[in-house]
Structures are given as C-alpha cells and as structure tokens.
C-alpha cells in the first residue's frame, strides 16, 4: 500500500480512529499498571508501559537461589502478557548485580542427590533442576518485550547467563564480569556458552573467558560488545536505561515486539529463514491500526501517536 493511500485510509476511517483514540485516552489517562509481587524481585512501573525489575536479595549479593530462579521465570512470563508492559529494565539492589548461583543452594542440591543411591534417579533430579534454571533464563529471551540489563559491580556466573539472554546491556564503570562456572568445577549450562559468543561476536574471546573464568571489566565488556554503553555510576545507569525503555515504550508495541521476535529468531536461522519469518509476521501486522497511525503521524509530522494496549 502506498504512503498516500495509507494516509487516505486513516483519514477515511474516522470511526476506527475515534474508537482507537477513545480507548487510548482511557488507557493512558492514568498510569496504573498491574505490578506482580515476588519475594526475591522488586517490581515497579516507574513510567507508563515501563517496568523495572530489581534482583532483590541485597544481603546475599543477589545470589540466585531456587526461589529466585523460579521467580525470574514467573516474572518474565507474567510481563510477557501484561498489556501495561512494553519495555523492561532489570537491575539489582545493593552492592553487586549478582554473585551468581547461590552456593548454599548448590549444597542443598548436593544433599538432595545424596538422599538417593541410584545414579539414574540422581540424574533425573539434576536434569529437572538444570531444565528449570535454563527455562528461567530463557524466559527473558522469549519475553516479547525488550529487556535492558543495567549491571553494576559484580556480574558473576549465572549473572552472565542472565544478561546474555537480554536485548540490551548497559553497565556502570565499576562493573565486572566473570564466567566463573569452571572455577566451581562445572561447564556453564544455562545459556552463557550459547549466547555469549553471539553477544560479543568473537568465539576466541568467548572461549577464553569461559575456559579461564577470568574477571573482565566494563571497558573490555564495552570494547567486546557485551555491553553497549557504560555509565559513570548506578544513578546515571538507571536514568539512561529507563530513558531508553521509555523511548521504546512510546513506539508501536506491535512493531517493537515483532522486531524482537524476528531478531531472536534470526540469531539461529539463515538469512532466508529470517526473511521468511518476518514476511509471515508482517502479512498480519502491516494490517494493524498501529501501522496506519504511525505512517500517518510520520507523514503529517503530527505528535507521537498513542498506540492501543497489546
Ligand atoms: C544447575 C546450575 C546452573 C547454574 C550455574 C551457575 C553457576 C555460577 O553462578 S558459578 C559462580 C558462583 N559464584 C561465585 O563463585 C561467586 C563467589 N563470590 C565472589 O566472587 C565474591 O563474593 C563477590 C565478587 C561476588 C563479592 O565480593 P565482596 O568482596 O564484595 O564480598 P565477599 O566478602 O566475597 O562476600 C560476602 C559474603 O557473600 C558470600 N557469597 C559470595 N558469593 C556467594 C554466592 N554465590 N553464594 C552464596 N554466598 C555468596 C560470601 O561467602 C560472604 O559470606 P560471609 O563470609 O558469610 O560474609
């Protein structure tokens, strides 16, 4: 459809536009988002359509225990379908972003394994645990709303798994990262080995980091592309991350979510498969009211359109 025809369509459908405006005015008039509650995560909605998720076990350096693994999954699955949420910032309370998996909960797992003498049954316990933790991290990647990680100080082990599942990563100058699994005698198994090489685009560096478990600082993380912006301190980091989230949240949720879905899909498919995928999405989405509204606004240099909830 040509631009001119689209503008005509929107002009010639006053009923549709009026209904959309009415619904949007109602939905945006007050900012009263439904915010889920968790024990290990603090969730707020500081701006319309923007959610802020904080890892919230500061006294335990936000070490990820079983409850937090479960809650990360539940949280991102809930935000995935929450129409008040269009962009998410994930940061952490206290001194560090996260010390990685809670090593005390690893000891409890060891105890659970010791309860059975049977190798196969121990294997099933481990299989289920690993799958649960993998699904927790993958919920971030599968969440259709863009997720911005805002990292300060230590981001260790499972923290790297977590941030590499996100769409955008920012950090403070004092941030440092460690793929520390080898140091606790295991191969990382919840996402770093799959996602880190793609995030930084260098197999050589990714393998060095994963084999050695060495600490790398914000400057190297930025140079390698693991983070795309480094801020002076945590206050500036959150301000910057929330501003980007607010900008994303002002766009058509159909457009943004289709963009994420296709970019995630394209990471693991050929260019042609990616093109086929977006073609199928867009044969539906280009019929959306959002598309007509956004094109008309671009053409007429109108104020930013207000999009209906999704
Ligand atoms: C199926 C499994 C899938 C997932 C696997 C994931 C694996 C991983 O995450 S591997 C990485 C595990 N984490 C670590 O090895 C981190 C070890 N900790 C540190 O390097 C430092 O503590 C840190 C840099 C995070 C912070 O240093 P800082 O000087 O600020 O504090 P500390 O004095 O070292 O620590 C304070 C107390 O916190 C306890 N602690 C630290 N990390 C953990 C942790 N991951 N789990 C539980 N507790 C932790 C530390 O022992 C201190 O305790 P206390 O002595 O009682 O004060």
Automatic annotation (TrEMBL):
GO molecular function: delta(3,5)-delta(2,4)-dienoyl-CoA isomerase activity
Catalytic activity: (3E,5Z,8Z,11Z,14Z)-eicosapentaenoyl-CoA = (2E,4E,8Z,11Z,14Z)-eicosapentaenoyl-CoA; (3E,5Z)-octadienoyl-CoA = (2E,4E)-octadienoyl-CoA
Pfam families: ECH_1
Gene from which the chain derives: LOC117577974
Alphabetical UniProt keywords: Acetylation, Fatty acid metabolism, Isomerase, Lipid metabolism, Peroxisome
GO cellular component: mitochondrion; peroxisome
Predominant cellular place of this UniProt entry's protein: other
GO biological processes: fatty acid beta-oxidation
The protein's role, per its UniProt record: Isomerization of 3-trans,5-cis-dienoyl-CoA to 2-trans,4-trans-dienoyl-CoA.
Protein name according to UniProt: Delta(3,5)-Delta(2,4)-dienoyl-CoA isomerase, mitochondrial
Membrane-spanning intervals of the chain: none
Family matches, as CDD domains: crotonase-like (cd06558)
Family: Belongs to the enoyl-CoA hydratase/isomerase family.
UniProt pathway: Lipid metabolism; fatty acid beta-oxidation
Domain of life: Eukaryota
Subcellular localization(s) per the UniProt record: Peroxisome
Gene3D superfamilies registered for this protein in UniProt: 2-enoyl-CoA Hydratase, Chain A, domain 1, Lyase 2-enoyl-coa Hydratase, Chain A, domain 2
